[in-house]
Amino acid sequence: MQNKIQVKSVEKREDALIFCAENTDLRVEGLKARSHVLVDSDNLSFLYILENETSFIYVSIPHTCWEELKNAMKNDETMFVRIHDVEIELEQMKEELEYLIGNIEGNANYGEELVNTVEKVFL
Predict the structure, then answer these.
(1) Is the Cβ–Cβ distance between 74 and 101 less than 8 Å?
(2) Which family, according to UniProt (predicted)?
C-alpha cells in the first residue's frame, strides 16, 4: 500500500477528534472522504479511505489511537485527519467502524491478534 498516511497522534478539540499525520509528502489538494473503512490486520490498524481524481489514499489509524477513537464514537464527535495543516472530515467514520467492529467480533478471519485487540478496546 504505497499511498498510506500514518496517523502519529490525536488531538481533542471541542466536539471533535483530530488524527494527526506526520512526515507525509502526499499532496492534499483535491482529497476527499470516501466514507469507507478497511482493516489492516497485520498492523492492527483501521484504514479510512480518501480519494482524489487518480488514486486512493489510506489513512492508517493504529491501535494506539483506538481508546480516543472509542471515546469520540461514544460522544458522537466529528473526526478529522490533519495533513499539512489541512483538515479533512472522515465522513461516516462512526457508522463504518460500528459495522466493522460487529464483523470482527469473534471472527478468526481477521486474525487472532486483531480480534483480541478490537474486543479489548471496543467491546
Answers:
(1) no
(2) Belongs to the UPF0738 family.
SS3 at position 88? strand
Q: How many residues does the chain have?
A: 123
CB 14 within 8 A of CB 80: no
Which residues, listed in sequence order, are joined to residue 46 by a DSSP beta bridge? Answer: 39, 61
Residue-by-residue pLDDT tens, the chain, 123 positions:
468 899 999 999 999 999 998 767 777 888 999 999 999 999 999 999 999 888 899 999 999 999 999 999 999 999 999 988 899 999 999 999 999 999 999 999 999 999 999 999 999
Using alpha carbons, list the distances in angstroms from residue 25 to 1, 5, 21, 28, 39.
15, 9, 11, 9, 23
For the chain, give every domain's residue range. 4-122
Question: Is-contact 83 10, C-beta < 8 A?
Answer: no
Backbone angles phi, psi at 110, to 5 degrees: -85, -5
Against a cut of 0.85, is the pTM above it? Answer: yes
